[in-house]
């Protein structure tokens, strides 16, 4: 056992910081505790690292997810022992489903203190494993740099993933070798498989209705143009999977719809599909099991084949497919016209119309509108060019922190968070981080004062309408939440909109003003 801390600049914690920086990881979202104080001290000595405090660990990992989706590289997170990481697990799950690169640093007791079974002792390794692609417990100060480089390697390995490092306190304060930081071993995505390309060509020429199901980098503008060329040459349909980490959308970009969330709509949308070609996507399954309904919306007998796996070069696979078909660039289909700005009652539809008309150029939309925003796509295909980030893993509470991370990754772009009120309550602490960092975010809270999605699911599973006890579990209108007061209390300017015209005025103000602004939309 060693309880002698190395000199500043020579500790394992310093080696960890140096190795992260040497591998271009220069943002740390943090919620530290006692076990991590030597890492905090090392971060204090490394001014190249931007340290961002989240007041709840779910904010920390959700922000790291949003950062990774836009920066296309990992941020570090700093979490305090097993309970701290347990608070972070839901948004680690969403990041894992998004294939977001992330390097979690979880502090633990000194190795010699673990047998004492102190109050915060837990099996961090087992807690981390289900939500992480890679887990490594650092063996000592001399293992810090190799372990950190290996964590970055796994986080950045296509298509991206969550790495979790467990840092015992004595590894952080112990004296580290004075050697150059270890570099991560990065590699390019896998090229298209000619056999898979040939099989896709065969299906596209078979005469049946064929859908190319896209996700990941296949949803960037250039890749969508290639997919559009394939569709124009073959009569195929291009479609995005239901939830996607990032989509490029708006005027001048090929419009593409998603597989619907509601099971009956998904079944109807795919009812006559003969062939499904997966481009990084997963074959569709229903979000939940429903009595008497199938677990996949695909019709019986549909042929499913994979052109490219998530870790493959998805734009390259589409290009190889286009070349095999001799498909030429095709005109971009016209986006549906956005209806005129509405007046009168405020509804999800009138909000969507305003966003379609008034979205700033090159904005980033972080969408956790859940039920209220399901129909937003048809009003925003023709909006100004933007990126659209979705809830990928179904664990609610990601929208506000996702916006924090996206804004830090892209400080020159306006971020618009479309946010359900119930989900926002899981991580409302993110508002404080927005204020502290003065992030350029417009938060739109869909305030229906209920878990509207669960009212729908109660019917969907055949359990009937909500009675008194069910409403006590699904509604939160007694007392009603006041988002203007909550935002103000955390330093964010806010206002309430109760009409379509009022919302349009507030949205224009928010998108033309730098810094965080929250609109409570009473729908």
UniProtKB/TrEMBL annotation:
Give every Thiamine pyrophosphate enzyme N-terminal TPP-binding domain span.
11-115
Q: Which CDD domains match?
A: TPP_BFDC (cd02002), TPP_PYR_POX_like (cd07035)
The cross-references to InterPro entries, in alphabetical order and at most eight, read: DHS-like_NAD/FAD-binding_dom, THDP-binding, Thiamin_PyroP_enz_TPP-bd_dom, TPP_enz, TPP_enzyme_TPP-bd
**One biological process GO term for this chain?**
small molecule metabolic process
Keyword GTP-binding set for record? no
Domain annotation Thiamine pyrophosphate enzyme TPP-binding: ranges = 386-520
Keywords linked to the UniProt accession: Thiamine pyrophosphate
Q: Name one GO molecular function term.
A: acetolactate synthase activity
Which NCBIfam families does the record cross-reference, listed alphabetically? PRK07586.1 (NF005760)
The family classification in the record reads: Belongs to the TPP enzyme family.
Name the chain's protein.
Answer: Decarboxylase
């Amino acid at each position: 056992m060693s309880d002698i801390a190395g000199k500043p600049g020579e500790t394992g914690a310093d080696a960890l910081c140096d190795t992260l920086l040497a591998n271009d990881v220069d943002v740390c979202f943090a919620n530290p505790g006692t076990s991590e104080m030597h890492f905090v001290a090392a971060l204090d000595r490394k001014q190249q690292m931007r340290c961002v405090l989240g007041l709840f660990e779910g904010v920390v990992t959700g922000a790291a997810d949003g950062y990774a989706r836009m920066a296309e590289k990992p941020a570090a997170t700093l979490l305090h022992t097993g309970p701290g990481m347990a608070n972070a697990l839901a948004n680690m799950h969403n990041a894992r489903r998004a294939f977001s690169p992330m390097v979690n640093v979880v502090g633990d007791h000194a190795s010699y203190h673990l047998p004492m079974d102190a109050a915060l002792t837990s099996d961090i390794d087992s807690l981390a494993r289900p939500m992480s692609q890679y887990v490594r417990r650092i063996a000592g100060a001399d293992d810090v740099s190799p372990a950190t480089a290996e964590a970055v390697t796994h986080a950045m390995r296509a298509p991206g993933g969550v790495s979790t490092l467990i840092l015992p306190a004595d590894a952080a304060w112990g004296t580290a070798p004075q050697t150059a930081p270890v570099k991560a071993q990065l590699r390019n995505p896998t090229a298209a498989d000619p056999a898979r390309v040939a099989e896709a060509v065969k299906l596209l020429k078979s005469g049946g209705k064929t859908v190319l199901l896209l996700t990941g980098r296949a949803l960037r503008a250039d890749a969508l143009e290639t997919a559009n060329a394939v569709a124009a040459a073959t009569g195929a349909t291009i479609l995005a999977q239901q939830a996607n980490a990032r989509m490029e959308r708006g005027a001048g970009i090929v419009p593409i719809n998603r597989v619907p969330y509601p099971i009956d709509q998904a079944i109807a949308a795919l009812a006559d599909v003969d062939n499904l070609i997966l481009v990084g996507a997963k074959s569709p399954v229903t979000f939940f099991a429903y009595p008497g309904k199938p677990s996949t919306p695909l019709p019986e007998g549909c042929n499913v084949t994979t052109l490219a796996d998530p870790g493959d070069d998805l734009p390259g696979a589409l290009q190889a497919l286009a070349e095999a078909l001799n498909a030429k660039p095709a005109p971009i289909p016209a986006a549906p016209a956005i209806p005129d700005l509405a007046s009168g009652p405020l509804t999800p539809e009138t909000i969507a119309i305003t966003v379609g008309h008034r979205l700033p150029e090159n904005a980033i939309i972080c969408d956790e509108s859940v039920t209220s925003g399901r129909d937003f796509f048809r009003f925003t295909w023709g909006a100004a060019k933007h990126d659209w980030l979705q809830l990928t893993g179904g664990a609610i509470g990601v929208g506000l922190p996702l916006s924090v991370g996206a804004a830090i990754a892209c400080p020159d772009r306006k971020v618009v968070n479309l946010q359900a009120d119930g989900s926002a309550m899981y991580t409302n602490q993110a508002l404080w981080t927005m204020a502290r960092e003065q992030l350029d975010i417009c938060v739109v809270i869909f305030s229906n004062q209920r878990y509207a999605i669960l009212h729908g699911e109660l019917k969907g599973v055949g359990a009937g309408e909500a009675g008194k006890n069910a409403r006590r579990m699904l509604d939160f209108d007694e007392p009603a939440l006041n988002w203007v007061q909550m935002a103000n209390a955390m330093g964010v300017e806010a206002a309430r909109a109760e009409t379509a015209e009022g919302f349009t005025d507030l949205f224009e103000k928010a998108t033309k003003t730098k810094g965080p602004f929250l609109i409570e939309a009473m729908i």
